[in-house]
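Quick one: structure for this chain?
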Amino acid sequence: MNGIGLEVCVDDADGLAAAIEGGADRIELCAALSVGGLTPTAGLMALAGPPRVPVYAMIRPRPGDFVFSAADLDMMRRDIDTVRDAGLAGVVLGASLADGQLDAPMLRKLTGHAAGLGLTLHRAFDLVSDFKDAIELAVELGFERILTSGGAKSAPQAIEKLAELVELASGRLSIMPGSGVTLDTVGALLARLPVSEVHSSCSVRQPAHDPRLVEMGFVTEDRRRTDVATVQAMKAWLSAR
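Got it. Here's what it folds into:
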């Protein structure tokens, strides 16, 4: 990999194809990016594997918080099995306690079940009050990276905090900025952050083509789609670093 690595999040077959064509270094495979990403369908996982580039599947059984029940855990274990059966490279995990801290027992169960797969800790990390302790837990559990916006709504709003996280990680895992990372914002981020990879949707707005779909509540007025040209442009910019 030359320059800074690019992970692109996608939630459908067209987005998967666009990310691959555009030159993404890794793909985060999801459903429902409009709610932050959920576990992709078994069909989309099968379409993504065996991957031409590394594909990590989101393991999140429902929208809302990251406080998971025993039933949620059972679902997530089964979804991890589907990821492994599809031949994908890894999983994207996270779990919280009611106070926002990472749920260490739940994460131990999930990472143990995912043995042999790559591991990304998702933005449940952004809810914690003590980033140092959370990073130490992530290192202990074998996570390769933490996808984070530095505790803010978007990464460009928390550049100094992200710099602190990079220092706390001390090269033991990757701090991967995500949320709000675009061609317009990535320069300011990387001018301050010594990171090896970034996370972006590389998407453009796509107005609904049929107003009836909006009226019936099937789609929002504007949705976003992964754009090949945007992936290519982001990859070219990062490769030149």
